[in-house]
Amino acid sequence: MDSMTLIAIASIITAGMTISIGGIGPALGEGRAVATALTSLAQQPDAAPTITRTLFVGLAMIESVAIYCFVVSMILIFANPFWNHAIAKAAGG
Amino acid sequence: MDSMTLIAIASIITAGMTISIGGIGPALGEGRAVATALTSLAQQPDAAPTITRTLFVGLAMIESVAIYCFVVSMILIFANPFWNHAIAKAAGG
Amino acid sequence: MDSMTLIAIASIITAGMTISIGGIGPALGEGRAVATALTSLAQQPDAAPTITRTLFVGLAMIESVAIYCFVVSMILIFANPFWNHAIAKAAGG
Amino acid sequence: MDSMTLIAIASIITAGMTISIGGIGPALGEGRAVATALTSLAQQPDAAPTITRTLFVGLAMIESVAIYCFVVSMILIFANPFWNHAIAKAAGG
Amino acid sequence: MDSMTLIAIASIITAGMTISIGGIGPALGEGRAVATALTSLAQQPDAAPTITRTLFVGLAMIESVAIYCFVVSMILIFANPFWNHAIAKAAGG
Amino acid sequence: MDSMTLIAIASIITAGMTISIGGIGPALGEGRAVATALTSLAQQPDAAPTITRTLFVGLAMIESVAIYCFVVSMILIFANPFWNHAIAKAAGG
Amino acid sequence: MDSMTLIAIASIITAGMTISIGGIGPALGEGRAVATALTSLAQQPDAAPTITRTLFVGLAMIESVAIYCFVVSMILIFANPFWNHAIAKAAGG
Amino acid sequence: MDSMTLIAIASIITAGMTISIGGIGPALGEGRAVATALTSLAQQPDAAPTITRTLFVGLAMIESVAIYCFVVSMILIFANPFWNHAIAKAAGG
Amino acid sequence: MDSMTLIAIASIITAGMTISIGGIGPALGEGRAVATALTSLAQQPDAAPTITRTLFVGLAMIESVAIYCFVVSMILIFANPFWNHAIAKAAGG
Amino acid sequence: MDSMTLIAIASIITAGMTISIGGIGPALGEGRAVATALTSLAQQPDAAPTITRTLFVGLAMIESVAIYCFVVSMILIFANPFWNHAIAKAAGG
Amino acid sequence: MDSMTLIAIASIITAGMTISIGGIGPALGEGRAVATALTSLAQQPDAAPTITRTLFVGLAMIESVAIYCFVVSMILIFANPFWNHAIAKAAGG
Amino acid sequence: MDSMTLIAIASIITAGMTISIGGIGPALGEGRAVATALTSLAQQPDAAPTITRTLFVGLAMIESVAIYCFVVSMILIFANPFWNHAIAKAAGG
Amino acid sequence: MDSMTLIAIASIITAGMTISIGGIGPALGEGRAVATALTSLAQQPDAAPTITRTLFVGLAMIESVAIYCFVVSMILIFANPFWNHAIAKAAGG
Amino acid sequence: MDSMTLIAIASIITAGMTISIGGIGPALGEGRAVATALTSLAQQPDAAPTITRTLFVGLAMIESVAIYCFVVSMILIFANPFWNHAIAKAAGG
């Protein structure tokens, strides 16, 4: 059973680190994008539709990186193939 | 019982680190976004509705990263599947 | 009893690290937001109500990250499910 | 008695690290806020009441992060539930 | 069976670290690209089509780096040749 | 007696690290505040009373963080509850 | 068989680290290149063909570094000479 | 006697690290304060008395952090309560 | 055979680290060079031939550093003299 | 005699590290102060006496931090109370 | 034979690290030099010959540092005196 | 004799680290001071005597930090009291 | 023979690290010097002889640091007194 | 002989690290000084003699730090008192 514990611990630590480290980049990148969007809106209010549309496309691209990390984190907690294999073996062995 | 202790320790440490490390990025990103919003408001008070709306959408996107981290942190403390499995096995074994 | 000690130590260290590391981001972000609010106020005193309102909403969003960390830190000290489980088992076992 | 020593050492180290690491962010953030307040005062002396009021609200928000760290640090030294539990057990056991 | 556990742990940790560390660069790079796109749009609204097209090509190039990391991460979780070889050997041996 | 030595060593190291690491932030923050105060004084000598008063309030807020660290450091050296408990037990045991 | 496990683990970890660390530089470099391309387009729309052509040549040069890393990463997972040698020896020995 | 050696070593290392790490912040902060004082003097020679007075108050506040570190460092070398307790016990035991 | 495994592991890890760490510098350097080339083209379209020629010579110089790293990485994987010597000895011994 | 060797080693390493780490801050701070003094002199040659006087007071304050470190370093080499105690005990024991 | 393996491993790791770490500086330095060359060409096209000549001399100086690293790296792989000595001894002994 | 070797090794490593780490600060500080001196000379050639005199006083102050480090380094190599004590004891014992 | 292997390994690793770490500074410094030389040439083509001469003297000074590192690196590989002493002893002993 | 090997290894590693780490500061500082010298020459060609003279004095001061490191490095390789003492003892003992 020791090997199951090790897999569980590795999954827990990795799940947390993945989303926390992987969230730094997107948060900073989105902060920068939003910040310039606001500056641009104040400078050229007439271009608001174009700016807003481009901002949302850009935020979606950046957020996708955070989503990747969140997906990997959730897979490791709730759909971990290595953990499932270990449970299956423990149940059947 | 040793394996339960190890899972508990890993969960405790990871839960804390996830939200604390994962909170640095969103806090800095939101600080930057709010800061430019204020600069833009001072520069172009007439565009206040557009700026405020864009700011709130942006803050929501950035805050979502912190929410991901908080969710993972809460899951690890209160709904940890590895811990539940260990308790179930300890109770039934 | 060794396993209880280990859980206690992990909880103590994580509780402290969570709030101290997690507080760096919000403090810097709020410092930046307040700083630009003051610059904006000096530049456009007439927009004071809008600026102040936006600043408070923004500070609340940023402070929420610090609150998350403080909540996790308090949970680990005073409502730690892993510690409670260990005490219950020690009392009943 | 070894487990009590370990809890004591963890509490001592964490108490010190919490306030020292957690104090870096607020100190820098407040330094930045105060600095811009002074620049703004020099630039727009007529807005002194608004600037001062906003500065104090902001400093209070930032200082709150340092207070959280100080509270956790004091709890770990003088009202540590894990230490109290260990003393109670040592006294009663 | 110990060797399978080690491969599983290495795969879990590497999968998480790959996407989280590898996502920092693309997120920051895209944030910068989107930010300047918005500045450029505000400065020269007439060039919107050229700017938007160049932005999307650039974002695709940058996102490709994150995709590489995500692909490697998924391969390590769901199509890991080393893990498959270990399972095959364990089943046949 | 070994456990007393360990507590003593942890207290010594933590006391020194607390004030030295915790002093970096306040020193830099105060340096920044004083620097802008001087710039502001040179730019607007007539506002000297307001600037000086705001500077002193701000310095007091920032210095408070250093004071927290110094207090924790002194408590750990001269009023350490864990050390006192160990001495009491050694004397009475 | 132990030596095969070690080679597998080293390959897994190195494959992930190579593309994740090696992707930071290209992502940031491309972000910078795209950003200035957009600024230049907004500043001199007439030079769009020259700017776009130079941008694509530059992006190709920078992307080549990420491709190198991805190639090394894929070689380590799917065409690893050390792993093949170990399998051949295990099969024939 | 081993425990005395350990306390001595911890005191020596901590004393040196406290003043050396703790001196970085004040030195940089004072350098910044003095630098802006000189700029301000060159810009507004008539305000020399006010600038000099504010500079000295500020330097005193910043230097106080270095003094705290020096005091803790001296206490650890020449008035270390843990060392004195160990000597007393060694002499009387 | 243990010594062969060690050489293999060292070669795998070094090959990946060489190209990933060694690629950061060239990618950033090329990003900077391309970025200024674009700025210069927008500023002085008439000098396009000279700028493009100088850019390509510069990119070749910078890329050469990445090529060095890639060459060393490939040598370590496919033409490693230490690995060949070990295989020869294992075959002949 | 082992304990004397350990104290000697700790003293040697700490003495060197104290002055080398502790000298970084003062050297950078003084460099900054001298640099602005020169800029100020070039900008306002008439204020040379005031600038020079303020510069020297400031340099003295900053140098004091380096002096603290040098004093602690010399104490640890030539007037180390812990070393003297060990020698006295070795001579008398 | 163990000592030969150790020398081989040290040579492999050092060869890779030398060129990868040593290539960061030259790549960044050359990127900067090329970047300013392009800016200068755009600003003063008439001085192209002087600028180009100076750029090439400078690039040669900077590249020489990367060449040093590549030479040391190649020496360690293909003309390593320590490895040759070990082989000679193993062959003759 | 083991204890003499340890003291020798600690002295060697510390001597080298002291001057190398301790030399970073002064070199950077002097570089900054010299740089501004040259800018000031170009801006105000008439003030050359005052600027040169102030520069030399400042360089002497900064160089003193490097001298401290060099002195400690030389003491540790050629006049090390701990080493002398060990030699004396080895000769007399 | 073990001691010879250790000396060989230390020499290999140190030789590579010396030139790779020691080359970062000169490469960056020369990059900066060349960059400003080009800016200066573009700004003041008439001063080309003076600028070029000063640049070459400066590059020689900076390159000398890289040469020092290369010399130490070559000495450690091809004229290592410690290695020669070990070989002489192994041959004569 | 073991103690001689340890001293040799410590000397080799320290010699290399001393000059490589200690060379970063001077190289960067000289790069900065040379860079501003070139800017100043382009801005004020008439002050060339004063600028050149001051530059050379400054470069000599900065280079002295690198010389200190090189001297310590050479002493450790060719005139190491600890190594000489060990050889003398080995020869005479």
UniProtKB/TrEMBL annotation, chains A, B, C, D, E, F, G, H, I, J, K, L, M, N:
InterPro entries (alphabetical): Alt_ATP_synth_F0_Csu, ATP_synth_csu_bac/chlpt, ATP_synth_F0_csu, ATPase_proteolipid_c-like_dom, F/V-ATP_Csub_sf
CDD domains from the UniProt entry: ATP-synt_Fo_c
Site annotation Reversibly protonated during proton transport: residues: 63
Alphabetic keyword roster: ATP synthesis, Cell membrane, CF(0), Hydrogen ion transport, Ion transport, Lipid-binding, Membrane, Transmembrane, Transmembrane helix, Transport
Membrane topology classification: Multi-pass membrane protein
KW tRNA processing (keyword) present: no
Residues spanning the membrane: 55-79
Domain (V-ATPase proteolipid subunit C-like): residue spans on this chain: 13-76
Keyword check for Iron: no
Pfam name, any one: ATP-synt_C
Location in or out of the cell: Cell membrane; Membrane
NCBIfam families linked to this entry: alt_F1F0_F0_C, ATP_synt_c, PRK13468.1
HAMAP family listed in its UniProt record: ATP_synth_c_bact (MF_01396)
General function of this protein: Key component of the F(0) channel; it plays a direct role in translocation across the membrane. A homomeric c-ring of between 10-14 subunits forms the central stalk rotor element with the F(1) delta and epsilon subunits.
Family under the similarity heading: Belongs to the ATPase C chain family.
Protein name stated in the entry: ATP synthase subunit c
Taxonomy of the source species: Bacteria, Pseudomonadati, Pseudomonadota, Gammaproteobacteria, Thiotrichales
